[in-house]
Amino acid sequence: MRSFLKLLVLAAIVGAGIGLWVTAPNRVDAARFDGLTGDAARGETVFTAAGCASCHHAKGSEDKLLLTGGMEFVSDFGTFYAPNISPHPEAGIGGWSFEDFANAVTRGVSPEGQHYYPAFPYTAYTKMQDQDLSDLWAYMQTLDPSDVASKPHDVGFPFNIRRSVGGWKFLFMSDDYVIEAADNERGRYLVETLAHCAECHTPRNPLGALDKARWMGGAPNPSGSGTIPALTPDKLDWSAADVAYYLESGFTPSFDAVGGHMAEVVENFAALPAEDREAVAAYIKALPPLDE
């Protein structure tokens, strides 16, 4: 009996050690950014493509570049609120280093070493190119600060245990692309990384991770009203020109106008070069049908 108890204790210690290793924050290697210089002008394009203002701008304000945060994201795990990411030194991220920023955006890890919840789409941003990340950081330093404090998330037990997010990342976070690029790397980069389109257009498994087997297959609207449409060719019969025009104008081939949060997405894409919208359209038209 005593031998059995010793083995049980040893197994518990080993199991706890493995658990701590699996759930530990995974930070970037800062040396990979040596020699990089951010360009704020290029960073503005990255900022727009990534939709940063769409979620983080001050609610009710016409200033889309005042990144006070506050937008709510309702989920089965609780309600998450976009934080203040303005360059304010206390209320925002003005006191961060570039390394802090890189860890947050591409690893989902705070400067204090806590895991961010994946309502923040770092699972897509993890593939962001180093130069784009540096340019984005440079641009965000030029924006106006806001002293409004971030609203705390409304998440109950057990989802409020931040360390458990590390286990979720271990299971579901990957820097691999889902679709082969063929000759359209820009389109794939925009859709799968910067614009993180799958966050809304792909269904999720019971643990909240994207169901990559049904990539871009449509999903319930997190607001609880309706669904986010599928973009696969068996569901969307628009031409590439139709898709590109929609991203520029907000009008569908049947002359319906964009609505909801997608209006913000169209506003962002309309500000990008036409070549980017065409690359996204080409990516969408190359998606495999779900019924294969």
From TrEMBL:
Pfam annotation, one family: Cytochrom_C
Start and end residues of each Cytochrome c domain: 38-144, 182-288
Keyword Ribonucleoprotein attached: no
Keywords: Heme, Iron, Metal-binding
Keyword presence, Cell cycle: no
An MF annotation (GO) of this entry: heme binding
Stored PROSITE patterns: CYTC
Name of the protein this chain belongs to: Diheme class I cytochrome c
